[in-house]
Each structure stands twice: as C-alpha cells, then as structure tokens.
Amino acid sequence: MAKGNNAANGDFRSQAEASELSPKLCTPLALFLASFLALYFEIVIIRYLSTEIRVFAYFKNLPLISSFLGLGLGMTLGRPPRILKQFFPFVASVLFLLIAFASWLRLTTIPAPGEDYLLLSQREVVTHLAGALRYMFITLFLIALVVAFFVVLGGLVGENLSKMPPLRGYSINLAGSLAGIGGFTVFCYWRWPPGLWLLFGFLVALPFIYREARAVLMFAVVIIVVTATGGGAYWSPYYRIDLLPNSPPAAWPHPAIFVLTVNHDVHQAIFDLSQAFVEKYPAMEPNRTMREIYDLPYHLIQTPKDILIVGVGTGNDVAAALRHGAEHVDAVEIDPTILDLGRQFHPEHPYDSPRVSIHNDDARAFFHKTRRKYDLIVFGFLDSVTLLSSYSSVRLDNYVYTVESFRETRNLLRDGGTLDLTFATHRPFLTERLYVTLTEAFGVSPQSYRLPFYNTAFIEGVGRNRAVIPRFQDISEEVAKQKDGVRAATDQWPFLYLARPTIPKSILWVLVPFLIGAGILVHKTVGLANCGSRQAIHFFLLGAGFLLLETKGVTELSLLFGSTWIVNAVVIGALLTMALLANTYVEFRPVSLKLAYVMIFLVLLVGMLVPYARLESFPSVGRVLGAAVLIGLPVFFAGLIFSRSFRDMQTPARALGFNLLGAVVGGTLENAVMLGGTHVLGVLSILLYGLSAIYVGE
C-alpha cells in the first residue's frame, strides 16, 4: 500500500520521530504556526490572485476551494508528501511570480467564454473552442499550483495535530486560524502592499525552513520581485489602485484628467469640470461631455438643499452638487483609499467643503443609519470589480441595486424628491434589469436616458412630475418594450450582472474539470476505500455544511451591517470564534449529539421562516442580538456536533482533512445561489447536516 494511504489509515509516526520541518519547535507552537500559515496564505493568495488575474476577482471561490482541497489532502495524508516538500520553494516561487508578472504575461484579462455573466474587465468574450480551452488550461494550471502549495501546509498542520489530543489540538488550530485572519486584517487597515504580506508570512514560516538555504534564498528573491512589480500602486482593503495623470493642457496648472485603475482595469477618472476650466477649454473631451453627465440631476431639481450621494469615488458627483448650490451633501464611499486620492488630487477639492460630510461606509449600511431626508439622491458609478467575499458569489455592489435597496432610498426622499442613477450598462440585460428593479421599488417606471460612453441614466421621484431633458436621448419606451421576462434584482437574488438564473459558463469551464481532477487526486492519494468509511463521510458532510453556514453568515450579515472589508473580516473571525467556543465547551462538558442536531435544525428553520431583513429596522443592539441568534447559533451548534464527533478520533488529522475536502463540495454547491437565490444556502445546510446525522458513529 502507498505510503500516503498508510498515513490515511492511521499509521502515523510516533512522537519520537520528530518532523524534519520543525526540529526546534514544541508541538503546540508548531501547530499554531502551521495553522496560522494555512489561513493567512489562503487569504493572501485569494486576494493577490484576484488582484492581478481578473477572472479570479469574480470567481474567488475557485482559489478558495482549491486551497481547501490542498489543505484537506495534506491533513488526510498526515504529513507533507516528500516530493512536494522538496519542491515546495519552487512551487511557491512559480505561483507568486506568475501572479506578479501576470500583466506582462497577458494573464490579467484572460478572455472568458460565455455572455451570460458580465465581467467588467473583459474586452473580449470567447465564442470559439480554442479560446475556451486556453482559458480553462491557464486557470486550471494556476489552481493546480494553489493546490500543491496548500498540500504542504495542510500536511504540516496534520503532522502536528496528530501528536496531540484531538480537542486540544483543534483549539490550537482554530486559534492559529483566527490569528491568521487578524494578521491580514491589520495589514489591510495599514494598507500594506503584497511584498510586505509575503515578507510577514515567510518570517512566520522561517522556523520550519531556516535550515534550507535554497528555500530561504528563493523566498527572499520572490519578496523582492513582488515588491518591485507593485511599486507606485496604492493598496486599499479591496483593490490595487493606480493613478495615471494625463499631461495638462497648455498654460493649465494641473492635469485635467487623472485615470484611476483598480486591479489593472479602468474604474473611474478625476475630471476638472470647474467653470474656469470648461470656459478656457470648451471643446476638450471627455471633460465637456462628462460635465453634461454630472449636471444631469440638476436639470430636474434646480435648488436642492440636502443631497445624498452614494459611491462618490474621488469626488466628481460631489463637485457637481457644490457647483449647483447644495447646502449639505452626505458623501458615501466604501473604499478609504479612493476617498484619500480624491482629497489629494481632485482639482476642485470638493471634500474640503464644510458643506460636505464624508462617510466611509457601505451604501446599504448608511441607508439604515441616516435619519435625514433628501431632495436628491445620486447613485454614482458603483459598478464593482470584485466579490464581497471569497465565500460568496455576490459582488461588492450587488446589494445596492436591489428592490429592497431602492425602497429604502425612496423612504429617504422628501416629497417631490428625485433619485438619479447612472450606470455603465455594457449589456442590454443590465439596462432592462435596472429598469424593472426600479419600477418594482417605486411603483412607477423610471425615465431612462442613453448617455455617452455606454452609460444609462435612470430618474425616479416621489410625487414629482416627469421632466424632459432634450440633450440626452429618452429611451424609456424602448426599454419598456424589451423588459418582459427580465427578473428584478432582490436581496434574495441580487445577481445584477447575471443575464438569467444560471451558473455561468465561465465558471463551469473551470469548475467541472477541477472537480474531476480533484476526484482523481483524492482517489490516488487517499484511496476510495478510506473515503467510504462512515467516519470519513460524516466529517466530509460536516465540512460541506459548515462552509455553507459560513457563506450564509457572511452574506446575511453584510446586509445587516454593510459589505465593508472590516465587517467581512469580523464576521469570519466571529464564526471561527463560535467554533472555538463550541470546542472548548465540549472539552469540559458532556454534549448530546442528538440534542445538538435538533438545535441546529431548529435554528436553521427559524432563520428561514424569520427573514433576516426584518432585523434591519431594529436598533444596533437589536440587530447584533438578532444576528447572533439567526446566524451565530447555527455555527455554535455545528461546532458542538463537529467537536463531539472529533473528540474520540484516533486519527484527528485525517478527520479534519476529510472535513476540509467536504468544504470543497460546500464551496461548489454555493454556486447554486445563482440559480435559486440566497435562501438555497439554508436549505442545503439542513440537507447536508441531515445526511451527516445518518453517518454518526461506526
């Protein structure tokens, strides 16, 4: 039998056979550091990969489930495979250097197949087999590197976990994972670049590799190269941001345009639209046309007193509001770095005005907090180029463009107030979906205008007469004729960029061969006989169910408290903390598995029958308590079930490995929300935990 299969069957080395990778570390410290590295590098790779290779920004769960596959295989084997351990420095170097040089290698915007899902960074949609195969092989090769990287880290965790009592070892594993999340969260707050992410990670790994001079040298070179390739960029908690100023016109003191790119894709621009500039250069484009676009709302409402602008970016919308005499502007922007760049570089300095209140927040979260009524609400160009979390298929901005969101804005408008929404509608279905969603929210259809540069403006109001704006083409009747059959975006199905309920072809072209390859890999390394035991299936199903619970928690709490990076970090940390509390409880108190299963089914059913949206009207304390019941308690009871099952395992690393392999399936099933909506997560969780109950015990 293969050496890996012997490990999987429980033939682990004794305590006397010390790990070659950790000769000087006591087992608890080695396990803590290995667990830290596993979670920390999982976040680092997902973030860095999605930044430099754009397709992974829209499909973050591909690298997520790839890391779970690697970690699960490594833990199931019980130690890092010898050949991968030897080549680990090479694998890590190739992975990070490919990411660092992605733009030079023309990997940043790999054309993807299918027109059913809009990837804003794509300039070309693949419609031929050769292009689809190229896309598939490139993404699969990168995913294979991710799997190989994490097999070694998973083996390192499993090797040390197998030397400790299961529950104590699992507590240390969870504590290390929490520290990994905390470490990267701090770096996001400080806005550190990738070179420093890697430097810190490799410093933590140094106790495992310091005797390998070749590995230390290779990692040092990688850190230097990654640092050099990111020079001049700003790193926000969401994006890599580059600011590219155009040459100023003759006799003008500063550039008229700054182009701002996020993750190598043009995202917005800072325009000088001041009266002095427009009068001096009346024909200069795109400034002349952009002035007309930003002035559009003020053809409808001449003297707005209070204005709310969400998605203010670097300040163009705020500058327009000030030029038209606004008395007070609430300016909301989720990205703190983009706000800072607007403060520093916008030629009209709109953020310096005492009439402007700046809110670094999520738009939906601000809707819940504000008590002010507005004459005008402006939705800036909010189209995002990333997901709100690697656990979710929902994009960062999706919950801003739902029926429920627009109803909240309607309630913030004074009688006679106006909503102005401008969006870069690259595809007809986007125009039609926004039209249908606004109509459902306001009860009347919006006025719709075609603007230059692929933009569309939608105008809604409360008790306001419809207006005529002659300089832009009114396409309201045209869109109304085409809207039949178009699904509105809702909080249950918020997929603005998806043409219809489906799993996009661009995902399936990678996901299907990945799952086939993963099955073959598990068969060759672990063996189907080992995978078929009751314990293996039990922990596998628990892993799949827990991943869906995490996804459900991240998605629902982002609605209650905002989709900001800090909320997502706190949510994931809180869910792991609940698992740690459950594990500690099991370590000291007896737990009935039957009762734990009854409770998890009960709280999941309550969560489905009592929509989390009802918590939005509660005060802050009430929302926190309600979220703890509807989202935190299922995770706690899931933790009780896992830890009670894990307590008596003779091969804890193997059990945790199968748990992570199950998370691969859970991450795959998460894509079903694009078909049936987010409530599918609760249904699938109940189903998976129900199946896991069947396989309890031998």
The main β sheet shows up as: 8 strands, mixed
How much helical structure, as a percent, in the residues?
55-70%
Strand content: 5-15%
Ends distance: 24 Å
- The chain-level mean pLDDT equals 89
The geometry reads as: globular
Q: Provide the number of structural domains.
A: 3
Query: Which fold name is given in CATH as the topology of the largest domain?
Result: Rossmann fold
Count of helical segments?
26
In terms of structural class, how would the helical and strand content be classed?
A: alpha/beta
At the fourth level of CATH, the homologous superfamily of the largest domain is Vaccinia Virus protein VP39
Rg from Cα: 26 Å
Q: Tell me what the CATH architecture of the largest domain is.
A: 3-Layer(aba) Sandwich
Total beta strand runs:
14
| Uncertain stretches | 1-23
Spatial arrangement of strands, main beta sheet? 9-8-7-10-11-13-12-14
CATH structural class of the largest domain: Alpha Beta
